Amino acid sequence: MQYDKIYQQWQAGELKDQDALEALIDWLNRVQDSLKPLEETEKLVRAQLSEVVERQGGRSTIKGFGNLSITRPTVTARYDRQGLDRLVERLQSEGQTELAGEILAFRSESMRSGYLQISRAKEPKPVKEAADPDWF
């Protein structure tokens, strides 16, 4: 089966859902396996570029390409949303609605679209036999 035809065959009703899923996953695995060496090469080249740019003081310009720079490490503050929600609820239940409202004023929400999540099956761990000296 040609992989570029799987989706079209499924849309046309020529493939069952499960058959299409299995064929598309097989295709995805082949694509990911093909990309691994390129991703490893990219990582190596980026590391080498970083060394050269670092030696040039952390900044460089390549005519016709653009700028390269080394960013410094930073600390990012995050807050536990559920913990803050519980705090606001507690403050409200204790009658401290003004303070709870001030905290809520800094809360914003945004919609994020759904996406395909793929969780690979884990290989089962081998069962140790009683005769195995490391069994205990």
Number of strands: 2
Sheet having the most strands: 2 strands, antiparallel
- In percent, how much strand structure appears in the residues? 5-15%
Cα gyration radius (Å): 27 Å
User: Spatial order of the strands in the main sheet?
Assistant: 1-2
Structural class: mainly alpha
User: Span between N and C termini?
Assistant: 50 Å
How would you state the average pLDDT, rounded? 89
Number of helices: 4
- Poorly predicted runs: none
Shape: extended
Task: Please estimate the helix content.
Answer: 40-55%
User: What string, H for helix and E for strand, traces the elements in order?
Assistant: HHEEHH
Task: State the main characteristics.
single chain; 136 residues; mainly alpha; two-stranded antiparallel ribbon; 4 helices; 2 strands
What does this structure look like?
- By secondary structure, this protein is mainly α.
- Helices cover about 50% and strands about 5% of the residues.
- It is built from four helices and two strands, in the order ααββαα.
- The protein has a two-stranded antiparallel ribbon with strand order 1-2.
- β1 and β2 form a beta hairpin.
- α3 runs antiparallel to α4.
- The longest helix has about 40 residues, at about 15-55.
- It is extended, with a radius of gyration of 27 Å.
- The mean pLDDT is about 90.
Question: Layout of SSEs?
Answer:
Blueprint: H1 6-11, H2 17-55, E1 59-62, E2 66-69, H3 81-93, H4 97-105
Antiparallel strand pairs: 1-2
Helix pairs in contact: 3-4
